[in-house]
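Good morning C.,

I know you're traveling, so I'll keep this short. The sequence:
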Amino acid sequence: MNRETNLVLLSNIIKDYRKGELDYTPNVDHISKWLSQFSPDNQDVILQETLHVFQEWYFSNKYVDEKVDRIPNYLQKKYHYPTIHSVCNSVSFLNLQKDGNSQHTIISRFVERIRERYGITVKTKIEEDIKHYIYFDDGFIWNRRCKRCQRFW
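The tokens, ready to paste straight into the viewer:
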């Protein structure tokens, strides 16, 4: 593929990267500017390899939302809760990571999705009434094995 095609393909993959956090949407111009930091002889190889890696490893917000949205129903079925509301009353999604932001990002995304879909506040602390604690780490959502086998989902 040629450079322009690769730029468009990569920009389509990352168009939702940090959506709502950045004051711009990554696009072809943004990627071209990023590539300009490398020597011209290396730019096409870096672009091709970046595209290859992102085609395999980048999870769009839509993809993550689809997976996160399945968690309450999975827990409801697994632990025999009568409603999603009862799941959220009995389960706490722990946010314990001290270094980094990946766990906080996953929990925040999950909490937001539950609030949007069900109008329910998700518990994220250790409390007496909790029957089950869920600990997300970035491998849970982002791990390549989860993408390929999707056994949990």
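Safe travels,
E.
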